[in-house]
Amino acid sequence: MQAADRMVALTCMPTLFFAFCITILAADLTAQPAFSGQGDWSLDGQRIIYTSNESGTWQLYSVDADVSDRQRLTTTQFNETFPSYPPDGKYLLFLSDRDGNREIYIKDLDGQVCRLTETSEDEFAPAWSPDGKRISFAFNEKDRRQSFLMDVTGENRQRFPGPEYDVIYPKVSLDGT
Length: 177
What we know:
4-stranded antiparallel β-sheet, single chain
């Protein structure tokens, strides 16, 4: 369980690999001979969003927690990865390489897609803050993957002070700090 006063992250160094707060769902999300992963639970615990490459590129899918009612959420020729459910259920956060490198995008319930970042490097692992007002993500800076926070508009980007090794999968704590 995530502690309210900590930032949870998956970190790695050349000789060490740490994983914190891992939850595993033992269910077959797809009957296709494909790779599936990068899942996220909806806050009500009723749905799982994940990626699969069964179409030839990585696309976003959603499925009920009992592995019924599977839906494909994206149908592009690009790789759509690292989905994140929002606290309010209105917007889906994900990465896409549709503009040449991995950028952070947001998709509303009507299917409108908006790019939130525009950089020369890849972003990684975007995630909503518990209050839905900020987005945490990792970004390569100074030859190291660092943690960042930004507003949901893509503005006010700030580096999160962190360790001297790569940070992967940063998350904002439950109390928003």
